[in-house]
Amino acid sequence: MSPRKDLPPDPLLVPPMVKTPRRAFHLARIKRRPSLKGALIALVVVLAAGLLLPLLAQQNPYDLTSFSVMDNRLPPGETSLDGLTYWLGTDSQGRDMVSAILYGLRVSLMVGLVATAFAFAIGVSVGLTAAVFGGKVEAALMRMVDFFLGFPSILVALVLLAAIGRGVDKVIIAIVVVQWAHYARVMRGSALVERRKEYIEAAENLGYSKLRIMFRHLLPNSIAAALVVATVRIASAITLEATLSFLGVGVPVTQPSLGLLVANGFDFLMSGEYWISVYPGIALVVLIFSLNLVGDRLRVAFDARRS
Amino acid sequence: MGTFIFQRLLQSIAVLLAVSIVMFLAVYTVGNPVELLVNPEATELEREAMVHALGLDQPVWLQYLTFLGNAVQGDLGTSFVHGEPALRLIVTRMPATLELVTLSLIVASLVGIPIGLYVGLNSDATASRAVMTGSILGYSLPSFWKGMMLILLFAVWLHWLPTSGRGETVSILGFPVSFLSLDGLRHLAMPVINLAVPNLALIIRLTASGAMEAQTQDYVKFARAKGVRRKRIVRRHILRNILIPIVTVLGIEFGNLIAFSTITETVFAWPGMGKLLITSIYQLDRPVVVSYVMLITFLFVIINLAVDLIYAVLDPRVKLMEKTA
Fold it and tell me: Domains of chain A: which residue ranges?
């Protein structure tokens, strides 16, 4: 099955809606786009919260002794027996939601970033190899890429995790399996364009080895497109992790990510105890939305520079 | 045309074979197949009988051929939990999923195409920019959380809509459907909206960028120079041309939605095949999981084939004899 190569795999890869400016891309242009600025600020805040603040959180949600079941399902603003204020309430086990969200954010970010890094490395190598070697190697690799892109990511990951079990490492494996092919396709495309240029011919005539040309010349000059795709892909990796955790095949209960926190609140939603699901979800949405927004604007800028 | 169909059919069969090998390896050779395939509550004697009956004492290639032979005859094992053929179990839950998916696609297109056209033709308007940013938000909302928020708003707080199930169904040609009764529609509303939002975002963006590009094309300039009214240009020239990629995407999305409805069905307890998959994963009901994957692969292969053919018919520029690499 060959998915149509002329169609975008997801909405954010649809050609941008901006009239192509003729000027070059400068970082200064970011400042002139308020929406990008807002998204970047939101992104930095969320990243900082996820990476730094767990150290300052008033509780360690992984440490069962640091909270009490007596405090379970308290609404936002209540105080505990020890005088702590639960600004966003507590969950069914008496965890402070603020602390749980900060730790959950860190798990979500970690899974998203590590999975993207691996998928990126594998995909870029495969795409580059296909573009450089061509012929049967290229045909075989790209058919494999088509095969992987032909199925919906959620289904492949779900079935894979059903087979190998849950765990942070396994979720990362599942995300890499469903995402590497995206990078391979983009990388091959841009490397093919780059390969026809004169400096590559010059390098070939100088007798450089294929490996050297691949990594010293072709890679740095054609990696930009794959990097832009990566911003959007991190967002979808985080969404995928959250969804898998929600469905109960993702991260383990002892290390709740944002998706798992939302799932934990599902049973209490009907009785109006909304905060257990709502707040982790908002953190998740801010993270995914700002990543997608930054990715979208970067791509607009990148496409403008290329044309 | 004949050669093209034949080529695509061969490709499709290759994909099915590849998936069957992967699934076979996943279930039969990774770990102990006896544990995976024999009900854990079986006695030692039953276990031995099963090992023999399943042919697990035979060489791997022979086991695969048996698996394949049975699969071709529609036998993909019996559910441990329900004691029914796994494939039949899935097929009986298919209409519920298909109803959800079809309605979502209809809602997404009916709302998305007009909005996308407006945005594409008025790309500088503030409203258009808001819609484009909004479409990114629509795409960013995780389906499970969005569904829960719909429940919180419309069921828990406003008490307008029911939270789960299909409601009252009416039978058409032997298939129960919900959309013909008021109660069924009330049950359908939230799941359909939940499933439609990401596709709505996709259709808006596709239509908008298509309309924007089409405006600069010579055939539009010519029509304008000829004095054709704007309304007619939009309807007869722009819309018709950008509809081709949209139809193709809708076709592909149909398959994706069947997979993604798994999440929506779980949140709204919609009794479709996606919910069955999740329950089967929890209950370690492997035959059902294997059957689901094989069936979905089969569906995908057919949808892709159909999309290719429709595309070829709609767009005369597509060369059917083209080498499909």
Answer: 28-52+104-302
Q: What are the beta bridge partners of residue B78?
A: B85
Least confident of A136-140, B12-16, B266-270: B12-16
Q: Say yes or no for a CB contact (<8 Å) between B304 and A150.
A: yes
Q: Which residues contact B325 (CB under 8 A, 6 or more apart)?
A: A139, A142
How far does the CA of residue B259 sit from the closest CA of chain A (Å)?
A: 6
The 8-class DSSP code of residue A53 comes to G
Could you give the 3-state DSSP secondary structure of residue B270? coil
- Cβ-defined contact of A7 to B245 (cutoff 8 Å): yes
Taking residue B56's Cβ as centre, other Cβ atoms within 10 Å add up to: 16
Residues 3-22 of A with CB under 8 A from B: 3-4, 6-8, 10-12, 14-17, 19
* B41 φ, ψ (degrees, to nearest 5): -90, 5
Judged by phi (left if over 0) then psi (alpha if -120 to 50, else beta), residue B32 lies in beta
Q: Strands of chain B (E only): list them.
A: 170-172, 175-177
**Class of A28-52+104-302 per CATH?**
mainly alpha
Other CB atoms within 10 A of residue B203 CB:
26
Tokens representing A62 are 């992984």
Lowest mean pLDDT among A82-86, B117-121, B219-223, B238-242: A82-86
Distance of CA B231 to the CA centre of its chain: 35
In DSSP notation, B202-218 reads: HHHHHHHHHHHHHHTSH
**Run means of pLDDT, 10 residues per run, chain A, 307 residues:** 43 48 46 69 85 74 69 70 70 78 89 95 94 88 84 87 86 94 92 87 88 88 87 91 91 86 85 84 91 84 63
A1/chain B closest Cα distance in angstroms: 6
Cross-strand pairs, B170: B177
Query: Which pTM value belongs to this model?
Result: 0.83
Chain A residues 276-295 within an 8 A CB cutoff of chain B: 277-278, 281, 284-285, 288-289, 292-293
